[in-house]
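Morning - zinc ion inputs below, output right after.
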Amino acid sequence: MKMIDNIKMSNYTLVKKCRICGGENLHLILDLGKQPPANSLIEKSQLDLSEPVFPLRLFWCNDCFLVQLLDIVKKEFLFKHYLYMTSASKPIVEHFTKYALDIHNEFLKKQENPFVVEIGSNDGSLLRQFKKLGSCILGIEPASNLAKLANDSGITTMNDFFSLSNAKKIVESKNASIVVANNVIGHVENLHDLMEGIKILIGEHGVFVFEVPYLLDLVKKLEFDTVYHEHLSYFSVLPIINLIGRFNLEIFDVQKQTVHGGTLRIFVSKKNNFKIKDSVKKFIKLEYEFGINNIKTYDKFSDDVQNLKNKIITLLHKLKNEKKSLFGYGASAKGNVLLNYCNIDSSILDYIIDTTPLKQGKFTPVTHIPIVSSDQISNTENDSIALLLAWNYENQILDKEHDFRSNGGKFLIPIPEPIIK
Ligand code: DWN
Ligand code: ZN
């Protein structure tokens, strides 16, 4: 596999301090080598060009317990044009439909003219649901292509990164009843500016609701491939309490969700606005019992990830030697981390199928596997094996691909232990 070490210093910085507490007591817990940005799919015409790769390493702060990257790829480089569309994954659209309804029933339905602001609103899939339920909405989305798609479909979207200065502009007309942010807080480098902006935006009575993949699931289920340059922080409840406490805010509820391999939905308001639910204490207790404050937890995790890598590679080579036809299922960002970390390239996978129109016709970064339409599955050989790179949708995808499976096709689920089903 061609791996060109070409760190463009203009797009890369190494930070030396924890992004929540500023501490320097940071320990390396996992090294995934040098990797291309996980969503940087390339065109056919770029296959012979060099591709940027950057160190991808996970660190743990011994002071506030935040797990984080210190290798920072410039946000404009990662997010100004973005290929991941929430509307391309049916399970996410279903999740958002219920999410909006739950928030509407709990906080909005009795309000006059509720106003919902979403940070990182992607193509507007979640805001569309809030709009249907009668809220005024505003999306903030840095990817120009996605902001345009959203605006064109009637979801008002500001094409920018969220910041304190944008929050100030928005509140000139109105405070938000709800600020919602899903899978985006982990993308933000300056968490202090973010929280200052949210505090202003929710004013006295608003609620900040956000979802983040849960660190405990990542560690327990060896979801190493969710570690990539877009994700700067890997959250648990304790470091979040530390962060928001600095802004006179508090968590009043924590709910577990199953999406994206295990997610937390966290509810934040100004101090003393809501009764704090028992869930908050429950998660804190769970995290201490799990050992998020103990380096040994992460030493074991790192060993387990390396063993998992060896198992995945051994199994794929065995199947290849048996002349099985292998392809990938879901050109997810995490899929690219797995491919690069395990050196799986186009000599092993013939192609990857994906439902996202923006991804089809492109190639995976460095590993150069072509991405094709999901209809291609009906043309596969009878004993083909699909490496499930979108393992977070295992149940839905295995159900959906009933025909492929009944014709003898099988899925290889790589995580937490490679298994063929
Ligand atoms: O934080 C992030 C998460 C939430 O979403 C982002 N940084 C980027 C993105 O990560 P991802 O690309 O790993 O997410 P998904 O949702 O696991 O991606 C699944 C991919 O598989 C998409 O490209 C759509 C595709 N897909 C498919 O081809 N058939 C998905 C489903 C459900 C399907 O049936
Ligand atoms: Zn810290």
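Note: The chain has two domains: 86-293, 323-420.

O.
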